[in-house]
Specification:
With 535 residues, the protein is α/β, with parallel strands linked by helices. It is 31% helix and 22% strand. It has 17 helices and 28 strands. α13 runs parallel beside α14.
């Protein structure tokens, strides 16, 4: 057991912990030990099996994964859907955990009950874990400007836009999201849109150590519902939109919305909300900063856009209108009217964080978002785009945006993921079929499900669209072959959209993730076409 020491601990964090957020999240190197008794009191937990020297014990880290425990850690043994974290307590204690945070059921398991180390018992250990981890790591979000973005679509794009504006203003940034996590330019892979609570607090502490001042962060409904964002103070909390998704996790849309609404329960100093939809309007209070990309009456929103123009290449220009007569000419290098809404939301967040208007415009003009309306241009005479659209509303918006960029045909490759919301599959098929001249139904990440059954559900939705209102629908199960088919059938002036996986670099089949990148496969198919002399 580790005795309390007054000085800061300088931890030699193993190199394997740096840069691998999936298997071993980064830890700060300078940690002031927090007395275990302080954690018990602040968490309002019940201390069980306290040894005589409990006053001398202090925590220097926290984790809910036994394989990541370092000496001095508080191990959180949480109840799960299939197993209880208490079943892994032996490994955690062997690795050096000084105490366990768990519920009554976990405390009763022999591995914990007979361990001889202190046990913090709480009715909701998952709910309190974020705050406990924040206390251990020195409440790092209080020393950062964390700008959280939630919503169904647009989280990634909006956080990249915010980051671009912050960089234009000269700030040292972090980034937390679906595509990647970055600490002052160093890239880490992302396991979740929002990391588990102790990993997130440790990550923030590392950012503080490395001089980061501002952190744009995606905040998923899972993270809010499961307490991953607990213990985090947000300088700005922002809402994009809400449409059907994740109904494999949430019982209905109202529950989904209520999870998103947790970002606006007082944990965000400034709340910025897009009111284009009814869900956003429900979040508005007298103190909300409102954003509207659709036509609204004068004064109904704090931030609006006028004069939207789109070039043939997809670049958009418009005027942003903000508080106190602010007017800002913006050029946005990515297409889609929904990205005007994302840019307005980002501008409002940046303004709330004190970024100058000129820097906001400069950042938006240079933003690049991996796998979001990402063009692959190798000299071919048709437009080719990779997009992450993987829910009905996102598919519709993406294809509507690309339809406006062509006088030719719109060719779409689309699949649906397995072990996820099954109800959205026919809806995605229907949305794609209505907007495309050729829809190629293929596999996405079938995971543990039968790929043919997933394709059948997607195709069923597509074929329910009357033939006069849709284009051709074909099925090509192999995703690589489907992308090749789309490229082979493209003619000059057409637009090819590969939808669903975006930035992802793997395809999960029967529990195995195989290397696969839509971007790389699309490039390869276009090169093959060009080598044959076709343009």
């Amino acid at each position: 057991m580790i005795a309390l020491r007054a000085q800061v601990i300088f931890r030699d964090v193993p190199a394997k912990l740096v840069g691998k957020a999936v298997t071993a999240p980064p830890r700060p190197t300078r940690i002031a030990p927090v007395p275990l008794t302080t954690l018990v009191a602040r968490a309002d937990a019940r201390l069980v099996a306290a040894p005589e020297n409990v006053q001398d014990l202090a925590a220097t880290g926290a984790t809910l994964r036994a394989q990541h425990v370092l000496p001095g850690d508080l191990f959180a043994a949480l109840p799960g859907a299939r197993v209880h974290g208490a079943d892994f307590a032996d490994a955690a204690i062997t690795a050096g955990a000084i105490a366990v945070l768990t519920d009554e059921a976990g405390a009763a398991r022999p591995a914990i009950r007979d361990s001889g180390i202190p046990v913090l018992v709480h009715d909701d250990p998952r709910g309190v874990l974020g705050s406990v981890a924040a206390w251990i790591y020195g409440e790092p979000s209080l020393r950062l400007a964390v700008l959280g973005v939630t919503g169904t679509s647009g989280k990634t794009t909006t956080t990249y836009m915010i980051e671009a504006g912050l960089k234009a203003a000269g700030h040292r940034t972090g980034l937390v999201g679906t595509v990647e996590t970055r600490i002052a330019g160093e890239r880490l892979a992302s396991a979740f849109t929002t990391p588990e609570a102790p990993d997130l607090q440790a990550l923030f502490a590392v950012m503080v150590e490395r001089g980061v001042t501002h952190v744009p962060m995606e905040v998923s409904s899972h993270a809010l519902a499961l307490g991953r964002a607990n213990g985090t103070r947000f300088a700005v909390g922002a809402f994009t939109n809400l449409s059907q998704d994740h109904l494999d996790f949430h019982p209905d849309m109202e529950d989904y919305f209520q999870s998103k609404a947790l970002l606006f329960d007082g944990r965000s100093t400034t709340e910025v909300v897009c009111v284009d939809g009814e869900w956003g309007k429900r979040l508005v209070t007298p103190h909300t900063v409102s954003v509207a990309s659709l036509d609204v009456a004068d004064g109904e929103a704090d931030w609006t856009a006028t004069g939207v123009r789109t070039s043939r290449a997809g670049e958009q220009s418009f005027t942003v209108h903000g508080p106190d007569g602010l007017r800002l000419a913006v050029t946005l290098p990515i297409p889609g009217t929904f990205n005007v809404a994302n840019a307005l939301l980002a501008a409002a967040c940046l303004h709330s964080a004190g970024v100058a208007p000129a820097d906001i415009a400069a950042g938006l003009a240079t933003v690049e978002v991996p796998g979001r309306m990402e063009r692959v241009a190798l000299g071919q005479e048709f437009t080719a785009v990779v997009d992450y659209a993987h829910k009905p509303a996102a598919v519709a918006l993406a294809l509507d945006a690309m339809r406006g960029r062509t006088d030719g045909r719109l060719i779409v490759v689309l699949g649906c993921g397995g072990d996820r919301d099954q109800a959205k599959r026919p809806l995605m098929g229907e949305a794609a079929a209505r907007r495309s001249d050729l829809l190629i139904v293929t596999d996405d990440n079938p995971r543990s499900e039968d790929p043919a059954a997933i394709r059948a559900a997607t195709r069923e939705g597509a074929l329910e669209v009357p033939e006069s209102e849709r284009g051709e629908v074909v099925e090509v199960g192999d995703r690589r072959a489907a992308i090749g088919t789309a490229v082979d059938r493209a003619e000059p002036g057409d637009v090819v959209v590969i939808a669903g996986k975006g930035h992802e670099t793997g395809q999960e089949i029967d529990g195995v993730v195989h290397p696969f990148s839509d971007h790389d496969e699309l490039r390869a198919a276009i090169w093959a076409r060009l080598e044959k002399g076709a343009r």
